[in-house]
Amino acid sequence: MLVPPLEGVALPDHDRESRAEFAEDHPYPLFPEPGRGPRRRARGGGRPPAVAKTGCSPTPPRPRGDGFGRLGTGYAPGVVVRISHPEKVFFPDVQLTKGDVVEHYRTVAGVMLPHLAGRPLTLRRFPDGIDGQGFFQKDASDHFPDWIETVPVERRSAPGVVHHVVCSDVDTLLYLANQATIEFHIWSATVPDLDHPDRLVIDIDPPAGVPVAVLRSVARRLRDAFAARGLTPFVQATGGRGFHVVAPLEPVATHDMVRAAALDLAEGLVADDPDLLTTAQRKDKRGDRVFLDVNRNGFGQTFVAPYSLRARPGAPVATPLDWRELTRATPDGFTPQRIRRRLARKPDPWSTMNDHRARLPST
C-alpha cells in the first residue's frame, strides 16, 4: 500500500484529548519506500564496541537522510511511503490485520513512548500472525536501519553482547510494528545506568479458573503493602491473565536489592494467606494458588509495556488503570478499539509515575 507522506504533522501531547482525533485524521502509518532508505548495518564494523553494564550508552541514531524524518517534524516533500502487507490477518478471531496493528501503535504512541523511552526492549514478533510461529527477539536484526537506536549489553550467562533496541520515537515504534512486533517488553531500568532499576514490579499470575474478583483483591493487598513501605503503587491490566502492581523508584538500588525487596513484600502477603498465594518458582509447587512473580525485577528481565498488544485471541492490550477502575476491570478487557475511545476522554493513569519515585526503605 502506497500513501503520500504527512508534512508538518505534530504528534499530540500524551495528555491532550486530541490524540484519538489525530489517529482518525491520519489513518495510515508511514514507512520508507524500499530502495529509498534503510541502510543495512553490518555486524562487525557497524556495531559499537562492547561496553560495561554499568554506564551503558545507547548507539546514537544516525542523521536520517533519503527521505527519513520524524513524524513530529514531517516527512520530506515528495517521499512515498509503504506499509508492507497491511491486509495480512494477524488476529484471525477478530480479523485484525497487520495494518490495524500498526495503526494501534500510532494511535497510542503519545502515551506509550514515555514508558518505552530509554529502556532496552525484548520484542515478540509474529510474521504470520498469532496463529503462526512467533519468537522473542532481544538482539537487533542486521536489516534494521541505521537510525534505530540500540544499546549494547554484556551477557551475564555467557560471553558476548546483546544489542537491544531502544524505542524513544514514533518512527522506531512504527518500524518495529511493521516488522510484525505484536508485543513490546521493557526493562525495569533505563540507559545509561542499567544496573539500577527505577521500577519495582510484582506480577499477579493466576492459574486457570481463579475469579477476577480474587485477582482484584490481591492487587489491592499489594497496593496497601507497597504504600506501607513508602512506595506509590500503580496498577496495570496485563492483557493476559493477571495484573501488574508497579512502584517507581529512585534508581539507586541494584536489581538484586529490588528483587529481594519485592520478594519480602510478596512473602508477607503469602504468610497472611498461604492457601491462596505463593512465591514458589516451580509450577508443580504452586498447586492452584496465585503466583506472585517477582522475577521481573532481575537484571535483563522484562515486563509487558503499557499499551502493548498481547498475542492472544481478541487482541487484548496491556492497560494502565486508576485504582478506582480496578473494581470493574478485567486483565484482558481492553482492545484497540476500546483503547482509542479511552484515550479520547482520559489521560494515561501512569503519566505522573516518575513524580512519585522513592527509595527502598533499606537504601
Largest beta-sheet details: 6 strands, mixed
Q: How far from one another are the termini?
A: 54 Å
Lateral strand order in the biggest sheet: 13-14-10-12-11-16
Amount of helix: 10-25%
The count of domains is: 2
In a nutshell, what does this entry contain?
By secondary structure, this protein is an alpha+beta fold. Helices cover 22% and strands 17% of the residues. The strands form five sheets. The protein has a six-stranded mixed β-sheet with strand order 13-14-10-12-11-16, covered by helices on one side. It has a four-stranded antiparallel β-sheet with strand order 6-5-9-15.
What do you see in this structure?
The protein is α+β, with helices and mostly antiparallel strands. It folds into 2 domains: 2-187, no CATH class; 199-300 and 310-356, Alpha-Beta Plaits (2-Layer Sandwich), CATH 3.30.70.3300. It contains 6 helices and 16 strands. The chain has helices at residues 19-25, 98-116, 170-178, 212-228, 255-272, 336-345; strands at residues 2-3, 81-82, 89-91, 96-97, 121-125, 135-137, 150-154, 161-165, 181-187, 199-205, 234-237, 243-248, 277-278, 290-293, 302-304, 319-321. The chain has a 6-stranded mixed sheet, covered by helices on one side. β7 and β8 (161-165) form a beta hairpin. α1 (19-25) packs antiparallel against α2 and α2 runs antiparallel to α3 (170-178). It is globular, with a radius of gyration of 20 Å.
